[in-house]
Specification:
384 residues; alpha+beta; Rossmann fold; D-amino Acid Aminotransferase, Chain A, domain 1; four-stranded parallel beta sheet; binds adenosine-5'-diphosphate
């Protein structure tokens, strides 16, 4: 039997994902305590408390675990050893399971595990230097995608290799250890937010994700593809859940190839940018669902309410500066357009500082909705 006030959830990381988790926790009577190295991190104003501590310091995890009933994380930079310590020595449940994070944190280990489980992935292999890359190109052909096995995010950590002359430079800009993948000539990118509760699983409707320079710019839901492809994407996401231990929401990033095949790109063991549209667009948001999942509460309905587009607000500045956003009136004066400002102190080029969500009428044309949302976002700019 669930009673309120509810339990206290601890979250390692207090960035925008922690902030949106905090916004989802309060109405459910759940307290959220976050830990992050940056004092007054984006989540701080909306959570019960924020501890200040480094992600590589066991004390951060110990102090957080002492105050909470269950612990989760919103960033992959957290240390699986410290999470394991909390789960095993302090008996504080950790979701998703630390072993899941360990597997996901190394893109090579992740891809191998998924391949073993029969999940379709692009062809890939580990590489140790120039000759290995050249050998991989013999097999897969150019272009290739070189990836740092650990620590990459928002495309930092990836480099496309178009021919033999690019190999040395790519190995210099991307930190080793590396892997290479065949370059997928995809028709579009898709994402499914999949959730694992206490003995139940569910998926949110398939979203289309639009990247530019490997950074997510917009999401379109429903994805502009056919029903068979959407169903195939959902099946792959459910298969992915089989290899993941622990409860919560997982971001499953996919490629749809020209012949309608679905290939898995990567998994995030947490709510993900490609699921922000669910806040306004679905009966339950990915953040509420994550909390329900980690608490072992019944999962909420993932039904879509209406066609929904999101557009990220990224830093458009040359140098680091205070994050003051101008043009906000364009959002405020557009029907069905919602602002999500992450409250970061500083902006730098391409830093994710917020997003806008545009809800459409039930019969809305998603391409028109996307164009209208882009027009509103165009009005937003960071000012000195
Ligand atoms: P990150 O972990 O930094 O988000 P990803 O590996 O997910 O990096 O890649 C980010 C983006 O780069 C993808 O969404 C896609 O646009 C592009 N990308 C990644 N891998 C490939 C690939 N094998 N072929 C083509 N494009 C790719």
């Amino acid at each position: 039997m669930t009673t309120l006030p509810g339990p206290t959830v601890g979250v390692v990381g207090a960035g925008q994902l922690g902030r949106m988790l905090g916004e989802a926790a309060a109405p459910m009577g759940v307290d959220l305590v976050a830990a992050d190295p940056t004092p007054d991190a984006p989540a701080a104003p909306v959570v019960t408390d924020q501890l200040v501590g480094e992600f590589d310091d066991r004390e951060t995890y110990r102090r957080l675990a002492e105050r909470v009933d269950v612990l989760t994380y919103e960033i992959e930079l957290v240390d699986p050893d410290h999470l394991e310590f909390v789960a095993e020595e302090m008996d504080t449940p950790v979701h998703p399971h630390p072993s899941t994070l360990r597997m996901i944190a190394d893109k090579l280990v992740q891809k191998r595990r998924l391949q073993e489980a029969g999940v379709p992935v692009p062809r890939f292999r580990a590489v140790g230097g120039i000759q290995d890359v050249v050998d991989a190109a013999e097999e897969f052909g150019y272009p290739l995608m070189l990836k740092a096995r650990v620590g990459g995010y928002d495309g930092r950590g990836n480099a496309a290799i178009y021919d033999r002359h690019d190999v040395e430079a790519a190995l210099e800009v991307v930190d080793g250890p590396w892997m290479v993948e065949e370059f997928v000539d995809y028709e579009r990118e898709l994402a499914v937010m999949a959730c694992q509760g206490d003995g139940e699983v569910d998926t949110f409707p398939v979203t289309e994700t639009i990247h530019e320079e490997e950074i997510l710019r917009e999401t379109v839901s429903p994805a502009r593809t056919d029903d068979t492809t959407r169903e195939r994407a959902r099946e792959v996401a459910v298969d992915v859940l089989d290899v993941l231990d622990g409860r919560g929401v997982f971001g499953v990033e996919l490629f749809e190839t020209a012949d309608g095949e679905i290939l898995l790109n990567e998994i995030a063991p947490r709510p993900h940018n490609s699921g922000h549209w669910t806040i306004e667009g679905c009966e339950t948001s990915q953040f509420e669902q994550h909390l329900r999942g980690v608490l072992g509460w019944p999962l909420g309905s993932t039904e879509r309410r209406s066609p929904t587009v999101t557009a990220n607000i990224l830093g458009d500045v040359e140098k680091r500066q205070p994050a003051t956003l101008a043009g906000v009136d364009a959002v405020l004066s557009t029907d069905g357009c919602k602002m999500h400002f992450y409250g970061k102190d500083e902006v730098y080029n391409l830093r994710k500082c917020g997003h806008i969500t545009q809800i459409g009428r039930l019969d809305a044309d998603t391409t028109e909705l996307l164009e209208a949302t882009r027009d509103v976002r165009e009005e937003l700019t960071f000012t000195e």
